Amino acid sequence: MNGEKLIENKELRDRNIDRVDVLEHVKEILTLANTDFSTVELVSEYYEVDRDTIKKLIQRNRIELELDGLKLYKYNDISEVLENTKKGLDVTFKIPPRGLILIPKRAILRIGMLLRDSEVAKEIRTRLLDIVHDAEERTEIVNDVIEEIRTEQNLKEDMLEAIISGDHNKLSVLQTELIGLKNKRIGNLENIVTNSVTITESKAIINKCVRTIAVKKFNCMFGKAWDEFYRFINYKLGINVKNRKGKGLARFSNNEILEMEKIAKCWLEKNDIDLKLVI
Length: 279
What we know:
- The chain is mainly alpha-helical and 279 residues long.
- The protein has 2 domains: 4-127, no CATH class; 198-279, no CATH class.
- It is built from 14 helices and 2 strands.
- It has helices at residues 4-8, 10-15, 21-26, 40-47, 51-60, 62-67, 75-81, 105-114, 119-165, 168-192, 199-217, 222-237, 254-270, 275-278, and strands at residues 71-73, 100-102.
- The chain has a two-stranded antiparallel ribbon with strand order 1-2.
- Helix 10 (168-192) packs antiparallel against helix 13 (254-270).
- The protein is elongated.
- 21% of the residues are buried.
């Protein structure tokens, strides 16, 4: 899927209109202080095109952009809309007698989905389509995991029948199949687990996961739970924890912490602990 799809397809634009965080990921955007509003001038600077290009795009797509909050405010309404922050503005601007068009971030993002001749807009569309692609892949993996959980339940029922009938050979085969299926499911989950927004949150979740395992599996022996977790880290990430200087999670880089969070969450799954109840 290429960027032209977003230009041509309103439904696709609507599905992605809430992803305003993409704006800051591509380039710093100037807004009027203490607000989420920008002006035609500021938006043209952001997309590195002239003012007339933005004004023409607004005229052609007025209805769509107004649904995102774009609006022409009269002179007397500006101070109220900006919550009397004019003196503290980071950027200077003039208010024409007829009023001023204020553009919230949702409308700024839609402009990026519609603007053809802007490298910044092209980058935004690329980022958005990458998110769409990842979401589709994630959905497919989740569906596979759900199907595998159903299969796992069926295997457990067959194992119970084998135990009751005394068929030890069948039980052994089913146990091997169940272990293989569970390992595959955990591997898939490692690919779809979402990390925390900040490293601090990520560390907090790792701590919660390890403490939960300590209670559930190691009879509240927290040191033993951490030793087990660090063995996983050594195996999964190739990190020799004992050779690291410092204490606790401070020994690891931000990228390592994010990977460790995924491993900690999957460790709960492996021990049949509902992640939602912990986090």
